[in-house]
Amino acid sequence: MSVTEQTYDLKGALRQHFGFDHFKGSQQEIIDNILAGRNTFVIMPTGGGKSMCYQLPSLILPGTSIIVSPLIALMKNQVDAIRGVSETGHIAHFLNSSLSKSEIQKVKEDVLSGRTKMLYVAPESLTKQENIDFLAAVPISFFAIDEAHCISEWGHDFRPEYRRLREIFEKISKVPIIALTATATPKVQYDIQKNLNMLDADVFKSSFNRDNLYYEIRPKREVEKQIIRYIKQREGQSGIIYCLSRKKVEEIAELLQVNGISAIPYHAGLDATTRAKHQDAFLMEEVDVVVATIAFGMGIDKPDVRYVIHHDIPKSIESYYQETGRAGRDGGVGECVAFYSYKDIEKLDKFLQGKAITEQEIGRQLLHEIVSYAETSVCRRKFILHYFGEEFNEQNCNEQCDNCRHPQEKMQGEAYLKLLLDAVANLEETQKAKHYCAFLSGHLNADIKAYKHDQLPLFGSGKDQDEHFWNAVIRQAVVNGFLYKDVETFGTLKLSEKGKAFRKQPVPFQIFKQHDFSNTDDDDAIIAVNQKGAALDELLYSQLLDLRKSVAKQASVPPFVVFQEPSLRDMCVQYPITMQELTAIQGVGVGKAQRYGQAFLDLIAAHVEAQQIERPLDFVVKSLINKSGAKVQLIQNIDRKLPLEDIAKSQGKSLNELIEELETVVNSGTKLNIAYYLDEVLDSDNQEEIIDYFLEAESDDLLAAYHEFDGCYSEEELRLVRIRFLSEYGN
Predict the structure, then answer these.
(1) Is 239 helix (H, G, I), strand (E, B) or coil?
(2) Contacts of 718 (CB under 8 A, 6+ apart)
């Protein structure tokens, strides 16, 4: 007799162990299936309540359930959660490489005693013969495989050790299996079931639609500035930022910290103690933001993550869907913003080189899908759900994606669609999207030549549009069901029945114009935001010029000694109103700011208030680049009166480059006494003559000075004396 035939009170058990009165979605049917001893396959979105599907049966059934989990952090989180609703800490344990020998022994004692109902194990731990022998002697209720997509080579997080699970299970015990995942295309689902030898499993597939999530793709321009502005507008809310590399995680975490945001890094390069500490800090709301590689988040049960930001586009739609699924698990607001540049895709493609050919083909197909998603103008929710084999009417998106909220322009497209479908038929459904784009636009590339497709009547028949356009038509044809991609041949386009019918009798069809992502930053450096392209405030600029003239007159120095014009222009973009903000302005150091700055700050503050200006500095990104150490060393070397040639050589610079650096230092308001060097190259009378010129000059322009002295002094001599002049009179 099965447990369910014993009329076990499932709702009573749910209330007793977890305090809930009702099951979520299909949880009850899934649990009934497990209690009936059936193999079970669960595809349920992140936040749908997958854990409950194996936790409650574990507490009901006799014996211990074995739960295979891919990450140590995930196991710890799950065990802590189940212990939190239990009267005893023995109820759940994990068995992995993080435990000491004595801790492993304690776990085994609790399992053998029958006190442990759930044992979480890493797949690597299951391959050890001593663990196989131990578990074979334990009464086991069932095996659960969490994150089961790791089994499939088509899954986004393929783990070879997962493919050995079935043979290991058979050595331990012949009990039912429950496989669970948040992301599985039909291809991945079949691959998992076949590998586990559970094609007979009852499949429970929930909708992939998370209607509370908002999806948005942004061009990767000034991404650090955008992220900081975004987070500061959501102060106090929890968020996750995903990056592809550990180095980028560290950089972004530090950047957030110096900009006053409580953030911590998380990646596999940190030691286990630090990772656990950072994870707990996020769960306990001691920090607002975790910056992480994909190592963070699998199974992390934090319901109130309000936003997930992808600094880099992920390598597959499955990865993207699972990572964005960590937002809004409580049903509240969940915003998913990803920054996209095709340069990132090229980097990911390079990672595939050197791998097996099949793995490269699969990886490139997955990359093609994420590019299609990023660049598409159709409803993003519709695109995602179509990818997972689910139909969706974009009218139901309710503007919960950027494409529905700000739709791109549409155009009549039935003629283009007909031409595309004819081309697919003409080439006998043998090619991938890229080939059809070249074929229709008339691009004679190597593949077109090799297949002699340039000799076909339809070659170049769509040359009034470029390959980018035809790529957009293909995406929309696929999403709308006229074509489908054959996964067995890594994305070859095939005509669907709907596509065949359209060829015979075309109907009206509109296509969206696509986003242009050609203008993105491709620099990996963390940059300070300066808004170089921002419009100059002409009114403020004229007021600052007048003020500079007045201050210079009082100080008996030329206006350029007070602040140079590039500094004034930067003030008209950044609007500094504090002494600290003024020192961030181009060419303004602490000394110059303190000597001349207050009057300028007062004027700018009054202007900002009168004109009700929203200042960029309210969202400024402070740079991580710290040159103060080099500057201090330079000043110390000059104080020691070292020859400039020797200083330049020690820094690997030319004398000209060193002089440029000295000019930057004195222009920002720092005194430099280079008289010891000048006295060696120019007598004092000549120096005084040049200084007298600069005292009367309207600008510090070198060319004007050179002509004034009819070329008597070299450019280098004039620059060195100008440095002395600015140090003595301006700083």
Answers:
(1) strand
(2) 690, 702, 705, 706
C-beta separation of 671 from 594 below 8 A: no
Residue with tokens 């590998």: 195
List the domains of the chain with CATH numbers: 4-205 (3.40.50.300), 213-404 (3.40.50.300), 414-508 (1.10.10.10), 538-619 (1.10.150.80), 628-730 (1.10.10.1390)
pLDDT of residue 322: 85
CB 535 within 8 A of CB 673: no
Distance between CA atoms of 19 and 13, rounded to whole angstroms? Answer: 9
User: pTM, whole model, 2 decimals?
Assistant: 0.60
SS3 217: strand
Residues 6+ apart with CB under 8 A from 240: 289, 290, 291, 292, 296, 297, 305, 307, 308, 309, 323, 326, 327
> In angstroms, rounded to a whole number, what is the distance separating the alpha carbons of residues 343 and 360?
18
Within 10 angstroms of residue 547's Cβ, the number of other Cβ atoms is 20
Is-contact 168 127, C-beta < 8 A? yes
Residue type, 506: P
CB-based contacts of 119: which residues, under 8 Å, 6+ apart?
Answer: 64, 65, 66, 67, 92, 93, 94, 95, 107, 111
DSSP state letter for 171: H
Tens digits of per-residue pLDDT, 522-531? 433 332 333 3
The residue type found at 178 is I
What distance in Å separates the CA atoms of residue 284 and residue 288, rounded to the nearest whole number? 10
- Do 72 and 98 meet the contact criterion of CB atoms below 8 Å apart? yes
| Arithmetic mean of pLDDT, 247-276 | 89
Closest by CA to 547, choosing from 586, 614, 612, 598, is 598
User: Within the chain, what is the greatest distance between any pair of CA atoms?
Assistant: 111
